[in-house]
Amino acid sequence: MTQDVSDNSTIPYFSDVMGSPPYLWQQQFYAACQRGEPPEAIDIPTGLGKTVCVLLLLLARLQNPSLPARVVYIVDRRAVVDQTAALIETWIERIAELPRLAEKFHAMAAFPSDLPVQLGVLRGGLADDGAWRVDPARASVVIGTVDMVGSKILFAGYGDGRSRRSMHAGLLGHDAIAVLDEAHLSPAMDAVLHAVAKLQGSRFFRTVTLSATGRGRSNALCLSAEKETHPAVRQRLHAVKTLDLQRVKTPSERVEALCTAALAHRTGAIAIFVRTVGDARRIASRLLKSIGDDAPDRVALLTGTLRGHERAALMSSAVWRTFLPGRPRDPDAPASFLVMTAAGEVGVDLDADHGAMDLGTLDSMIQRIGRINRAGERSATVTVVATNTDTE
């Protein structure tokens, strides 16, 4: 049964940190956490602030100290770890700038610290500074990939010595709430987390799964579209996206058709999604060749094969900035193109003006299209190119 919490009261300090009032589903989630009953799943369309549940859990613990001290946010992609960590770091900085709020977090800790909330990042290619391990009583947010967090919870952490393994298992698997983003992509991790919760008991370890594909659990917290009156939510729910379906005979023709569809847009941020790294590279190469001299500032590639420094360079590039939500838009600026595989489908916070893509699974298409015209501020065109074999 879908949870429908009627408590619409304001969330203390939320607007001070976020700069805007909460959505209805966020109020419902906070109210449930405040009662000590966080929902097991959140099934909300992409672009409606699911990551904010981390902040809501932190704020709810100030009202209900029985909630876990650590929020462990687990994602399936390394690129998402970095982007999410940067976002949560801005929230922690904002909390530190609010003396009364910061003092509430400091009062719940065992040892003094400069930061009211500690942040830990666990992913391959990045050293963990370990600050979140120093004070188990202090509110902490730990962000990591499925492999890194999963191995540590199971006493087999990558790179951990014998003593460190038990420490990480204790900190991540006890007095913690695990938030698994896009749980449908990591069913094994979902099963592990629920097994740990069953062994520990809900008082010591809880899980929340996030999804935007409509495949959440029966007791998931879902968006009440008919009750949601927030203007931004309604605008996103009613965003105009026109679908243009094209059929071609061969995979090579599909690549050519995707390039043609993308280049037809003279301005804006154009997202191109394909299933394989090979197709992504071919499309990026074709775009670079077609655009000419200024192509490096207008074309970028995001795949799961990027190394750490390559992802960092991409996320600091001019192309990446043209796809960020809330960015200033120059109607006269030439189009920018971001070519992506599944690495750009899940968890990455992007808002493209138009899109072109090959045909994927239903879950994949939901994620892809959800990253086009997310804010609903204009009309968007989504071109889908398929061969006959794609639908067999």
Morphology: globular
Count of runs of 4 or more consecutive helical residues: 14
* Helicity, as a percent range: 25-40%
- CATH class identity of the largest domain: Alpha Beta
First-last Cα distance: 36 Å
Radius of gyration from the CA trace? Answer: 22 Å
Averaged pLDDT, please?
Answer: 89
**Beta strand count:** 13
- What is the level-2 CATH architecture name of the largest domain? 3-Layer(aba) Sandwich
Name the structural class: alpha/beta
Low-confidence stretches: 1-8
Can you write the helix and strand succession as a string? HHEHEHHEEHHEHEEHEHEHEHHEEHE
CATH fold field value of the largest domain: Rossmann fold
Q: How many independent structural domains?
A: 2
Describe the sheet with the most strands.
7 strands, parallel
The strands making up the biggest β-sheet line up spatially as 3-4-2-5-6-1-7
